[in-house]
Write a structure and sequence with these properties.
By secondary structure, this protein is α/β, with parallel strands linked by helices. The chain folds into 2 domains: about 150 residues, Aspartate Aminotransferase, domain 1; about 240 residues, Aspartate Aminotransferase, domain 2. It has 14 helices and 13 strands. The strands form 3 sheets. Strands 2-8-7-6-5-3-4 form a 7-stranded mixed β-sheet, sandwiched between helices.
Length: about 400
Amino acid sequence: MTAEQQRLNVNLANAQPSATYRMMDRVAARRAAGAKIISLSAGEPDFDTPSHICEAAIGAIRSGHTRYTQVAGLRALREAIAEKFKSENGLDVSWQDTIVCSGGKQVIYNALAATLNGGDEVIVPAPYWVSYPEMVQLCGATPVVVRCGADVGFKLTPSALSNAITPQTRWLILNSPSNPTGAVYSQAELSGLAEVLLAHPHILVLSDDIYEHLTFDGAKFHTMAQVEPRLKDRTLTMNGVSKAYAMTGWRIGFGTGPAWLLEAMEKLQGQQTSGASSISQHAALAALEGPQDFIHDSKAVFQARRDMMVDLLNNTPGLSCAVPGGAFYAFASCKGLLGKTTPGGTLLRTDEDVALALLEEANVAVVHGSAFGLGPYIRIAYALDNESLRKACEAIRQYCLSLS
């Protein structure tokens, strides 16, 4: 086959594969070779999906709900989603104001693909979820990355937002609680950003709330359209069942936003994947309408794990970790390890070197922070049982002690 025959779409050719999935692939390869790896790389809860949700899916199969659904989702599920947005987020929406997609990632991608053109810009605060800038580039637009370091709590400030805005700015993407840092925006912080956005009516807001139910220390969750109702008509509020209900593999995300945007997203989805899995939609309906004890219980477990992980990491030579306010990630600085040499003879020049060395020589998998737009850090997902987390942290500590 000739090079001309293998020619890719230029936007795809310039895109990078997900660093998280690349690390997961490396873990799989190492395990296949016989290594015992503790993986702290995957961003998914280690709990099983609650049994009543699984039973609802089985019941849907037995009842014959195995055919196509409406492109935008089952009406019953969309009604439950609208009720969720009303009761939990104070957003007065109807079922027609919602859309269901095959995972939260598709909600985001559909919105960007439906609205971006060449020359458009999207403001992406860093650290960011690895897929944001790649999605923007795949849609032919330009990600404008704004560095938000530890000095500002890994959060975008009004002044930084204002400085990043141009006439070409089409979207601002906000993620709270954050992947990878666990940073949570307060109501006052969102209000400050909203004041800037109100002065620039050409900018849309994409609020990624997928970790909504994982805020710690009694902190309340807030979302942009709730904090500033004047932005509701240009805000897409995205959520899903994957993190809150341990349903990552079920692939159900959903969103609410202005009618013109949802119509465009539905049109795109109709030519792309059609509706999400009918069985998964019935399971998501059971999740939203059924008992919510799982959310409260898992949140308590994650907060206890966070406390343990931060303590262990801060007692590891060369690492330091701020206390995350939510999600299930620790974003630890590994600056103190750079310039050192591993027992295997590798000089650690970057945080990616650190992550690869931990995998190859300590059998612990993490993801390097520069993949999320800010180094030198490593992202550690504490979505494992306490014993495994302690073993992983001890392996990391011993490894750091072995560096010269």
